Fold each of these.
Amino acid sequence: MKPLLVIGLGNPLMGDEGIGWHVAERLAGDARLPEHVEVICGGTDLLRYAGEMEGRRRVVLIDAIEDGSATGRVRVFDRDFRGLEDHQEHAHHLSVIQAVRLLRLIAPTSFSLLGISISSARCEPALSPSMAARMPAILRQVLENLL
Amino acid sequence: MTTIAIEHLARVEGHGGITVELEGDAVTNVRFDVFEGARLLEPLVRGKRYDEVAPILSRICAICSVAHSLTSLKATESAFGVRVSPQTELLRELLYRGESIESHALHLFLLAVPDYLNYPSATALAADKPAAVLLGLRLKKLGNQIQEAIGGRAVHPVNAVPGGFGRVPTLDQLIALRGSLMQGRTDADAVIDLVASLPAADFCHSDTVYAALRSPNLDRYYGGDEVMVVSNRSRAIVRAADYRELTNEKAVPHSHAKHSTFGGNPFMVGALARLTVNPRRLTGRLAVAMKRLKLLLPADNPMDNNKAQALELIDDLDRALESIEQLLRAGLKDERPMPVHPRAGTGTAITEAPRGLLIHSYTYDDEGRVTAADVVTPTALNAASLELHLRRAVEQCAERDESVISKRLQMIARAYDPCISCSVHLVRQR
């Protein structure tokens, strides 16, 4: 069985919307990352990584969520992603929730989502100061979920 | 006055919306709104070195990352007078083809087909008709596989660099791709069967102006630098360096995306435009498939863009296979990128992204740093034409039931396969 796969989703040019990507980038170079974990800095289309998921027992997704919580709060959603919007709003790609449901048709992989609350998404190549300040705590919480 | 507002156009990235205003039966206003915040992507590359530009701009969109990356490289190479090798041209075309397969498969089977069959989403469709969804997923995966092998990773390619490729794919990778494509070609009949079986979408007819790269080799997405604009009455050629004649962008108050017209007329770009401008592509298996899909060119129905994507999808499989055979016949060389010597000047490139013409234009100083950049996306080019077709659809709809009009408008908007996020670029209005 292949190692656990972590995919950080988002567009790093869109400010806090790219938090999943930024976390994955930091995680990949973090000495605390367990040996049994592989990390991908993904874009916004989860289906692109269908091939990478083959043969994995578990895939952990990291993505921005808009839930009205304080910026940088990490929430864990397992299996059925209860409470998350299933509405499809993209021209190019499926929402993460819809993509996971389709991927379950073709592979028995277990998915979990680490959702990081954001309060803005605008064209900006860096995280907002409030999100950047939360990065050490976010990384700590993400790593706890990978053990 | 009656207003029909579709504020969150389902399956349109970036929350594009449609507003229709009616006075009795008369349509007084139709707007395709883009109310996402203005993007600042072009200023992001000002002052950057020439080799930093493509990696930044490829991130405009995860689905079109190859298109943005390769168009960016083509513009930079044009500015510096760099001619890449025939092997690089072939590999870039193959990479582009992989993105087209991936994008068309996703759009057709997971986004458009659910509309035609009255399912709210691909997951709902999968519950009843898994074969259609699995077909789309299989082809999408094949497109991804090509991009990963040639581009170096599944999204945002890293191998394509100014002057060529940082790392040329191995012989084993090409042979593996050839096997996957031969397997993928067996799905071609299923693609046409499925699209031919969809209910007719016959609710918008309008004379349409089309614009696409005139492809000297009939089948290129990446090569060529002349755009042909075709209407019922005329044909015109616009060279890449004169692209502003074509874009003629105009800021409109309801949208952050600028509207483009040519000769005062909106025009449509994308798969349907490509087939209209380059009809000699449509021979053999494609001609038979076109007949099965009842597609007549030039089309007056924007929904036919979905049929054109189906034809391109099966053509892409053949062309990708041909490119690999050519590379193998010529003997794959582990060549280094051509040397790049920065100089002051401007370079402009036009390519055919999956959803239509994509333009990148940069001006560099003599150290190879960007002093000005312009990116014009297919969705921005299509915006005025889409509004025109939305208006025609409302005018031609005998019913005034809001749900009927809304469904039709959403289907037309999706047939354009828009990317709202990347259609937006900075506009300042006084």
Amino acid sequence: MEILLGQEEAVTAERDLILKAQAGESDAFGELVQRYMRRAYYAALGFVGSPEDAMDLSQDAFARAYRARHRINPDMPFYTWYYQILRRLCFNFTRDRSLHRRKIRDQKSWIVDDATFRSSERDPQRNIEREEIRRKVREAIDTLPDREREVLVLKEFEGLKYREIADVVGIPIGTVMSRLYSARKHLAAAIEEMER
Amino acid sequence: MTGNHEEHPERARALMMAALDGELSSVEQAELDRMLFTDETLREEWERLKTVKEVTGTMTFREPPEEVWDRYWVSIYNQAERGLGWLLFSVGLIGVFAWAGWQWVDELLADTGIPIWVKLAIFAAVFGGGILFFSVVRERWFTRRHDPYREVKR
């Protein structure tokens, strides 16, 4: 019950911020940015794989959202609306990058192992094997088609529920599951190939 | 429904995904268990997918330095402000050039020393240039909006 009340308060607060931003208070929009900047950055990172490009794209999407703030529906979640701008920018960016065969600006992987799992394996040999599998999976994630990687990132890295993924991406839950299945099957194949 | 996933591959996949992500009801869990019990191929696939889930579960995003968040909103505000600046600058410049062009054409037409065919030639060149410019701009704008493959990797 308390969680529901908290959620309701957050929705009302967000609605107020949108209305204030639409009335010309740039600080209110700034507060919306503060709320979602990390999520936006990580979403872009999942798309483009480069921290610098992810930063630029997520900021560009916010700048566009700011200029179009009068079109925001205050009764709808801000992030869902913003995410449409962001994903379009990211899709265009990855398309242009592959068209011009540009390389990713930062060669370091955008994925790291969670610190809590890093040294959980006591057997050194097993630890090396696990690290090799993780490296292979990281590489395989980068080669996934954009739409499959998008859903995988939202599920695995952002921890969204299927319903939430369906809402932000604008697809049915069944499609969320089938894209996840394809993505995971691809990753499973990468692990299998390594084990052979 | 039988437990053979080949008859209902979509259902089996959906159940496996939901099971991995903790979004399965007890009824659906029982359905998946039945499928796994009767189908060895599905069991093998299930084990592979579980391994993937275990691995991805140990991964997270590489975090940027904390300082970037301090400048984040300021950069966006500056970007948006400059966007407005560029828009006003461009609109103003187009207005000034349009006015200057009109003055030039007006003076040209009023000048009785220039033969009429030269005036017509200049007028045709300027008018043709205008048509070409708008045609190219319109085509690019239309392609950008309606390209069905714009999100497709080539």
